[in-house]
Amino acid sequence: MAAVGVLGGVLSLTALGGTSNAATSGNDAGNHPKPPARANQAAPQEASDARIKITPRQGAYDVGINDPVKVTVSNGNLTKVTMTAVATGTEVAGTLSADGTSWKPNGPLERATKYQVTSEATDAKGRPVTGNATITTVSPANNFIGHLSPENGSTVGVGMPVTVNFDKAISNKAAMESKIQVSSSSGQQVVGHWFNDHRLDFRPKNYWKPGSTVTATLNLHGIQKTVTFKIGRSQVSTVDAKTKQMTVVRDGKTIKTIPISSGSTEHPTYNGQMVISQKFRQVHMNGATVGLTEKDGKPSYDIQAVPHAMRLTDSGTFIHGNYWGADSIFGKVNTSHGCVGLKDVKGGGDSKQPAAWFFDHSMIGDVVIVKNSADKTTVAPDNGLSDWNMPWSEWVAGSATH
Predict the structure, then answer these.
(1) What's a single GO MF annotation on this record (predicted)?
(2) What is the pTM of this model?
């Protein structure tokens, strides 16, 4: 990801690091309340009473270097907290309170830096829980225009749009959009679309051409900055919720068919085109974060380390490894709360498992299409990087300069 800021009237562009493969709180719901449940169903297990809270929240931008970053726990004790700079891996020194209920860094953070906070705690019965968040600190100017992705110099799949998220609402959209030009070496026409006052995406009519180079040029006050990224091979995987099979197509040829288990009748998976936006070798999934709790308030499921997880929507849809489901469900029964599950082993250490294979052969920006799901709605274009679900005529109509 990159951040764009203004420093003394001069446009500045600061790299903030790439995608982490460490565990993170990957099932936080976005601003898409319908349907609320988009996490995977776990086998019944006794959840911890401990509750971890990380301040600022997951995904926070523009965090002040002296702002109070803090990890707290209720109904338990913290056993481990680490805070690291994503780009460099440098660990931030911190102090755990004497009573074991809170942690904070010892000093100020670095500017324009993406940090990952990982925490562990146990309740009175020794039952563990984890909490994780990724935050980004302010630019040297402390005045962001917006945050641009994908990362400068990265290689991504054919479905990756250029996304600019603005910290402040943009009133003159035409003026702002005119300062951002996106082009491709393929010659494809690229058009911007405003989803709201804070988000502007750019994409061509069809997926990017494999092997092409995309250039985003930003001009402000006579200063120009450029971000470039490459498009890798084409990989489009189609999940058929009816047959419970996923077909992986690489550069027009089917390279693998994988049995899957998608959303149950009560919690069907979204239909439509989705794009892998994050990859995590392990991720904590907790039903409470997407509104799935039992009558006593405890989460419907709480899985500490879901292996080979890749995010498909902001509202919590993942395609990931499933080690708790019986082998007989894959290709036969849809059992999840909306995610797409592939056979795996606990810890994800077996590279021969279908989930491990798909993880290792996928990249950020790859397309995953779901069809024949019981959910009659198509995933919203602004839910994650699902831009491709919007017809081209409607997309162009959402530009402020066309």
Answers:
(1) peptidoglycan L,D-transpeptidase activity
(2) 0.74
